[in-house]
Every structure is written in C-alpha cells, then in structure tokens.
Write a structure and sequence with these properties.
By secondary structure, this protein is an alpha/beta fold. It has helices spanning 4-13, 29-36, 48-54, 65-78, 95-107, 129-146, 158-161, 166-179, 192-201, 217-223, 233-250; strands at residues 21-23, 25-26, 44-46, 83-86, 112-115, 151-156, 183-186, 206-209, 227-229. It starts with a helix and ends in a 13-residue tail after the last helix. It holds the Pfam family PEP_mutase.
Length: 263
C-alpha cells in the first residue's frame, strides 16, 4: 500500500460498529513506528495535546499550521499504515481556510483527520452548528479535489459544556455526517446508557475517547462503537513509566526490564 488514497480508503473501512478501530495515539516518528509494529495495529492517530506538549506549546492550536503539517508529514512518512491526524479546528478562521489547510494535510500524507466544533477548549464556547458543518464540508471538498477518500472524524464537543442538551449534540453529529464526515467523535459518553443512546441516535459510525474510568473496551464493541482512541492518555502512560523508571534508577534500584527495549 503506497498511495494516500489507498490508505484513506482502508482507514474509512475500518470504522465498523461492533468491531471498532482501536487507535493508540502517537506524537512523533518513533512512537508511530513502535505502535505500528504492535500486533494487530491497523492504523494510527495523532493527539494534538501530545504533539503540542512535545513542541512546548499549549493545546488548542498552540501549534502553528506549519508545525502541525510537518509533524503529520514525519509521522505518515515513518509508517506504512494509515495515519489520522488530530487537526484541531483546521488552523483557519473560515471554511475556505480549512479547505486549503486540509489540502496541505493530504499532501503531507494524512489518510484521515479529526476536526473539532469548539472555538477554544472542549468545555468552552462552540461554533454554530451550521458553521461547524460547513468546515466539515470544506474538508470533504479538499479531499475530493485531491482524489483521496479522507476519513473525517468530526468531533462533537457540546455535551462537555451542555450535558443536558442531548438533542443539540445529536443534531450536530448528524449535520456533520451529512456534510461529509466518515464518523462522529462524541465527547463525554461516560456510561453504557449514553454510549448505547449515541449509537442509536447518530446516523453513522460513532467514535469515543477512553481512559480507565470509561466503559470497558469489549463492552464498547458490544454496544456498537466504531472507533476508540485515547488522546493524550498515551503520552501520560509513557511519561508515567519514564518517571517511575527514573526514580528507580536514581535510587540505585533494579534495572527496569524496559530499559532493554529495542526500537
């Protein structure tokens, strides 16, 4: 598999309700290679939070668009499997800018992307639904222009700040699918009941983010989720292991087995 179009088609096909795509988030070339070599891994996804912290800047477009594109190019070029890029809000003030930037992202080798509907953080103000949908549509037009069936994972942030407005969240989700999203990434589905409800009310594949407090992975599959990611949690996992190892070594303790890991 060599073309971005082939990788994008594969990535889109892996969003199967009940047999979810599991993407362990990465942030640079070496983490991409290590995760890609793990048994069963079919695709990768970046996490903007992790990429931003590696660059020493805050999340929520602390990165420049050039930094985001260069990171995407490095990661996509490091592996042979599809890479979905967390492209935050598209790094542009309007839909035309999103279209131009997504075209550049595809040139960098991305097979898919995440795009958010919040204006700042997930708990902050939101774009109007029509505006957010127009940005998803702009990303799809860029993909069509390039001849690449980009897997667009459109994020719905509204339940974070307005957990009681289920109808509004579902309206957003289905607008984004109508605008060309491949899947909808719904934040804040902490219970089995909410997961089941989202799968029922969204007219397409549903993606979620998971952590140790989430519905177990096997149960998410049983409920019909199509994609699971872990966001910055994988960076935290890596740093926690590193910190513990540093404390053990500093205390003249045993060598951690992972110190001999070959990458």
């Amino acid at each position: 598999m060599t073309s971005t179009a082939d990788k994008a088609a594969l990535l889109a096909s892996l969003h199967i309700p009940g047999d979810p795509l599991i993407v362990t988030n990465v942030w640079d070339a070496v983490t991409a290679r290590v995760v890609a070599q793990a048994r069963g891994v079919k695709a990768l996804a970046t996490a903007s939070h992790a990429v931003s912290f590696v660059h020493g800047v805050p999340d929520n477009e602390g990165l420049t668009v050039q930094q985001a594109l260069e990171t995407a190019r490095l990661i996509a070029g490091a592996v042979d499997i599809p890479v979905s890029v967390d492209f935050e809000k598209g790094y542009a003030p309007d839909a035309a800018g999103v279209r131009a930037n997504v075209a550049r992202l595809i040139e960098a080798g991305a097979a898919g992307l995440n795009i958010e509907d919040s204006l700042e953080s997930a708990s902050g103000p939101l774009r109007e639904p029509a505006d957010a949908a127009s940005r998803v549509a702009a990303a799809r037009r860029a993909a069509e222009d390039a001849g690449v069936p980009l897997a667009i994972n459109a994020r719905v942030d509204s339940l974070v700040s307005k957990p009681a407005d289920w109808a509004g969240a579902m309206d957003r989700a289905n607008r984004y699918l109508d605008a060309g999203a491949t899947s909808v990434f719904v934040l804040r589905l902490p219970t089995e009941g909410l997961v089941e409800r989202a799968v029922r009310d969204v007219n397409g594949p549903v993606a979620v983010i998971a952590d140790p407090n989430s519905v177990p992975l096997r149960r998410l599959a049983e409920l019909g989720i199509a994609r699971v990611s872990f966001g910055p949690g994988t960076l935290g996992l890596t740093l926690a292991h590193l910190q513990r190892a540093a404390a053990t070594l500093t205390a003249l303790g045993d060598y951690p087995e992972e110190l001999g890991f070959k990458y």
